[in-house]
User: Fold this.
Amino acid sequence: MIDLLIRSLSLTLLLGLLGCGSGNPGALPAGPDLGPYSDLDQPENYTGATLYAYMNGGAEVILQKGFSRLTVRRYARGTDELIAELFEMKDSRAAALLYGGMRRPEAEAELIPGCVGSITPAEVLLAKGRYFLLCRNEDPMAADGAAVRDLASRIAERLPGEGTDNPTRN
Amino acid sequence: MIADPAKTLRLTRRDLFRVGIGAGGALAAGLSSSCAWSPAPCREVAPNPFTQGGRPLLVAVQGEDLDAMLQAGIEALGGLDRLLSFGHEAVFRANYVARQPYPVTTAPEFIAAVGRELKTCGFRRRTLFDSHGSALLTASAPDAIMRGLGVHEHLEKEGIEVVTRDFLDAGEFRPVRNAAWRISSPVGLHRMLHEAAVVISLPVVKRHGAARFTCALKMHFGSVAMSDRIITHQKGMRGDSEFLDERLVNFADAVKPQLNIVDARAILTRSGPTLSAGGRVVRDVNRIILCGDMVATDAYCARLMAEHDETFSLDMVERQLKIAGALKIGTADLDAVRIVEIKL
Assistant:
């Protein structure tokens, strides 16, 4: 009986996970469409039911703030390996709240006209419309932020909606 | 339960997820009491072999040369040959929660360095075990995270075997239980760990969403069946942090590694357990911690986190450590621990 229950739960998880994996990349374009980037892997998609599989215990923070879906793509530019995580939230306020909770106030600057981002050498965060974008260098100790900043800019320009220029405090 | 897959597919995914959690809830409610079947005992191990004057020994080494730090730490511990009395084959547990490099996950060079020390002292076989995916999905294959991080290439050069297993395969997990647990239901412990003669845990030091902190105790979420992990995290998400803390300790109790070697050269602060949740890497902490007591290890490493993360406080782990102490897994009272701090 225990075995049957475990298999039932496993089937449920499987069917949920079938909603993720490679497929529609959402608003994250392929590397060549962005310019000097190549794709390192297939895009990944996650919903509320499967976000735990990607983020483990960090999923709670995101889910509590009105999460809809996550698209993940990995890019290469020269020797840099970069990752973009695009969180689609229920509305622009939810995206701004998520950004407000994760940003580094001391690292904020305008990334593209009308859109402020939290910009460090290894990571760029921003909110635009109902989207929260997190671009990272796969090396969390990277010292040169040019590549991750460029990637975030190119993606942000394509996102619909208004940028966050006065982030909501969490 | 779900007997007709065709009917199942006409339900929405939200309905299926609720059914799954309902099934899991029944499991967590203690079905063993209504069945003739009995779970096995947790992994049985001898008392902590790394003691001094009757007290658990914790060695913390500060430095920049990993091999030198490890050698100094092992020497202060009294040598790894104390583990040989249990067997000549060791299984490593490391942290592969996501495809993100150290300090989100255990650095392959750290495992390799520990592996070399074990080989030197006489271990014939060293195996890294993990269960963090399913063969049913390319994006979540059992070895996807490790392959993405280059773990296999790094370790196979050192003669360390890498074994990954499907977290959805019920046949791989053995239900175990300790009668002293306050939660009556068993947990599914991977049989490779249940049967291992020597288990060495290689945690990293990070913040965590619902659990607030992850190091030696929380590591063992990765040692149990996915259903147990999901149920526990679901309860945490609904605000039942007491259940999460109890279960976290139960998972650790099920494994009871004989040695914990923590790589705290860098730590993940403010949020976790991945960078995707807003965590920040703090470099130049430059410590490794070696201890046969998981609870003392977490008590010490929690202090390290508090030094580097102004948003963390020791009361965030107090309940977990108290539960672990009550189960006699170890001691959080660092005054009762023989602490040796070495600076290279």
Chain A touches chain B through 52 residues (CB under 8 Å). The two ends of chain A are 45 Å apart (CA to CA). Residues 81 and 92 of chain A are 29 Å apart (CA to CA).
